[in-house]
Amino acid sequence: PVSQFSKFLLYCTGMSQCDLPGLGIPSAEKVFTQYSRCMGLECLDNWNMYMAFSFFRVAAILQGVYKRSLEGQASSTSAASVGKMAEEMAELAWGFATKEGFRVFKSMPTGAPGTSPRRSFSGWSPALTTAPRLPDSFSIRQASGGDTSPPLDPGHLIISPTSLPPHVQALHRRLQEFMSARILPAEQQLRDHQASADRWTPHSMVEELKAEARAAGLWNLFIPREVDTKAQLGVGLTNLEYAHLCELMGHSVFAPEVFNCSAPDTGNMEVLIRYGSEQQKEEWLVPLLNGTIRSCFAMTEPKVASSDATNIEASITQDKDSYIINGHKWWISGALDPRCKICVFMGKTDPSASRHRQQSMILVPMDSLGVTVVRPLSVYGTEDAPAGHAELLFEGVRVPRSNLLLGEGRGFEIAQGRLGPGRIHHCMRLVGHAERALELMKDRVKGRVAFGKPLAEQGTILADIAKSRMEIEQARLLVLKAAHLMDTVGNKVAAPEIAMIKAVAPSMTLRVVDRAIQAFGAAGLSNDYPLATFFSWARALRLADGPDEVHQAAVAKMELRR
Q1: pLDDT of residue 123
Q2: For 263-314, what is each residue's pLDDT tens digit?
Q3: Which residues does 292 contact at the CB level (< 8 Å), separation at least 6?
Q4: Residues 360/364/368/372 CA torsion (nearest 10 deg)
Q5: Distance of alpha carbon 367 from alpha carbon 376, whole angstroms
Q6: CB 302 within 8 A of CB 330
Q7: What value does the mean pLDDT of the chain take?
Q8: Residues 474, 479, 483, 484, Cα dihedral to 10°
Q9: How far apart are CA 138 and CA 379, in angstroms?
């Protein structure tokens, strides 16, 4: 069976000069290993022997055809051309036999030491061909300006939940059932609460749902395997695996909190996991992981263009065993929630340092003297209670030196690390927003009649449904590709796709939701459906996760450097 299967691998040789991983084609060795596993065979170290056998056999057949052409007995007028092919097949076979030809499948180009692996914008990096060994024990990776954790097995780009590993499929199924049975039926009650006089007090139902989700094992799903190799904090998913689950959560704006997977807590937990001291983890990370407190992230300022993080003016000044914090921040999501107990604050410790070494990050308890809530900010008139978006003043706030994260001048570095997997969580959820909006639109137009026929038979409605489906599929594939690259070659090499999807996903969702609202009519603008909230979130995310213009400029610069 092995020698017969090796015939199949002959086809790979015709593409030996191509970037096989970039085309989504696994290496011959990987295919052979998978075949052996499926057939219950032990991994064969001498598989190249079977390849040599197959190539010699093909060479012999071609030589026979060539001989018949010389004798005038060939059935094809082009038979004489196979003589060269026979020679090439024999050379390849000899290469396998001597283990020299093994490099055709095994070897891949590498850059100079210390450089990032080269990759094509249209596919995957060829830098990895085998699965590296993950660490035996959990440790927090300290930042050093790059991705130092071992990458994961490149595997395949999984575009459907049905192709996920069995344990992840089970998680996906449980999550889908929980969403359908517990969260979607509660949406209207939670939306009504957000518009009530008690909106700044968290609804008791949310805490009940959180307890149920945790009991069901649907908790802290966002923590990437690269920092949680033994699944001690979460469930040990890759970014690609989590993308499929995160899209499901995006079907409801209330879902992420229920599973302890909501921003800004996810990003802040990642900061503490990666960069926090043991004391900081014990005091703040543990309760965040347990979902007993919430947090906020204070970077954006009203007086400067905060899309450039180096512009911030807030100060962090050392004073003996403390730091004194002064600054004016706004659009601080989550700060108004009474459960918000800790703020990750970004300010300047040394304005005279180099541009990206001026900033530091420090933990500021929200009950510290000098922290003042100026007002809640609204998005299209909605305050997003109880978390809200706050304008805050920090005036002479004193915190211990031990609250500093990583060290002075490391703030910009942490900010980049914080935007690791979290960079595309919003995009994953946005695909879920769009998918839910299209589902609601389809149900609506099937049951409504206008001008003598169902809306579903109107040409403009049909065109809108088609456009929405096509745009969702395109954006989803880009999200999944970005997640896959983050898993296999790291965030830095995946930077083009990350920037692309952060520009693509919000705009796509806006268009899809807008079409759904149009099909619903006035009802689509109301609080009776999630469409208006989806629209406002998508519009906000064209700014909140970095302006589209910044992402587009980054993509263009990287394209010109190719």
Answers
A1: 40
A2: 999 999 999 999 999 999 999 999 999 999 999 999 999 999 988 888 999 9
A3: 339
A4: 80
A5: 17
A6: yes
A7: 85
A8: 0
A9: 40
CA neighbor of 460 nearest in space, from 432, 441, 437: 441
Residues 117 and 494 sit within 8 Å (Cβ to Cβ):
no
* Amino acid letter for position 420: G
Query: What b-and-e string marks burial along 149-167, b requiring 16 or more CB atoms within 10 Å of the CB?
Result: bebbebbebbeebeebeee
pLDDT in tens, 189-219: 999 999 999 999 999 999 999 999 999 999 9
d(CA 173, CA 159): 16
Structural contact between residues 398 and 364, judged by C-beta atoms closer than 8 angstroms: no
SS3 146: coil
d(CA 451, CA 40): 63
Sequence-ordered list of residues with C-beta below 8 angstroms from that of 90, at least 6 positions apart, any chain: 55, 56, 59
What is the C-alpha separation between 476 and 244, in angstroms, rounded? 9
Q: Which two tokens stand for residue 182?
A: 């517990």
* DSSP at 454: E
pTM of the model: 0.74
The answer to whether 191 touches 527, Cβ cutoff 8 Å, is: yes
Please say whether the beta carbons of 141 and 477 come within 8 A: no
Q: To 10 degrees, what angle do helices 239-249 and 422-446 make? A: 40
Give the residue carrying structure tokens 């989590």. 242
pLDDT score, position 122: 41
Please report the pLDDT score of residue 480 as a whole number: 97
Q: What span, in angstroms and rounded, lies between the C-alpha atoms of 62 and 178?
A: 61
Q: Which pLDDT value is given to residue 144?
A: 32
- Which of 55, 46, 56 has its CA nearest to residue 12? 55
Closest CA to 294 of 339, 332, 234: 339
Sequence-ordered list of residues with C-beta below 8 angstroms from that of 420, at least 6 positions apart, any chain:
224, 270, 486, 491
369 φ, ψ to 5°?
-65, 130
Mean pLDDT of the 396-425 span: 87
- pLDDT 10s digits, 493-550: 899 999 999 999 999 999 999 999 999 999 999 999 999 999 999 999 999 888 999 9
